[in-house]
Amino acid sequence: MPIRIAFANQKGGVGKSTICTQVAFQLAIKEKKKVLVVDMDAQGNTTTVLLKGQELTGTRTVQLFDENLDKVEATETEYGIDLIGSPKNDREGYDAESLPISAALVPRSNLERIWDQYDYVLIDCPPSLGRKLLSALNATKYVLCPVKLSGFAVDGLEGLFMTIFDVKEQINHELEVLGILINEYDQSAAHNKALAGVKEAMDDMVFDNYLRHRPPLDSATMEGEPIWRVRNGKRAAEEMQAVVKEMIKRIKKIESGN
Ligand SMILES: Nc1ncnc2c1ncn2[C@@H]1O[C@H](COP(=O)(O)OP(=O)(O)OP(=O)(O)O)[C@@H](O)[C@H]1O
Ligand SMILES: [Mg+2]
Fold it and tell me: Where in the sequence is the domain holding 93, given as residue range(s)?
């Protein structure tokens, strides 16, 4: 079974898609792993980054909600990463939020039909606590929560964790929080205060490594490129690599039962 990780936070703009795509590049290109990315967000940002103008020929994310789907087929993208994606601002994808709760269980069974081909399945989640997040939490084993530090960071995490624990208790018992990844940390007094609050609430959940505000990450997103191939991307690439290393270490620790 592949290692499955969902990148989730109901708050918008915290770096879910950026981190999901850069982790995918790192695992696929540097670690030579077979990676499937599932873009659960109807905004389609991750899809746009990975496709780089190529057509989405395979299964679209919204089709994963179809119990009678004939065939599940990923679209192969430039760097060998396979994608089940959402066309930009997919109206049908947004409509999936109004499906009955039971429909949120269907994407997992469709993904199970192909996921044994992969080492990793990475799921980018939308900024809401709706059906698509539920379907991602049902399909994944691990959840990684990117967070931007603010006075409200802890409140947002509490809402997300309540959802995660409900899903774990009721529908997906294997679900595990891999950790909270601080994004755009600037070491200011305000950030340090917010970070102290997050650590007080959930200390060992917080990744030791963090990402700083690095404009090349924005360029990487716009160019659909791995961060280490973008101009001035060296520092961001080092930070991202450290994050991936810690992510793998955390997974190994959980899998070995320590
Ligand atoms: N560490 C960083 N340094 C600089 N820019 C960043 C960083 N992390 C994310 N960004 C930028 O911030 C913006 C929001 O990031 P991103 O789209 O990844 O967030 P998101 O959580 O996926 O948003 P949404 O909830 O809308 O899906 C993007 O323009 C991205 O390039
Ligand atoms: Mg996003």
Answer: 3-256
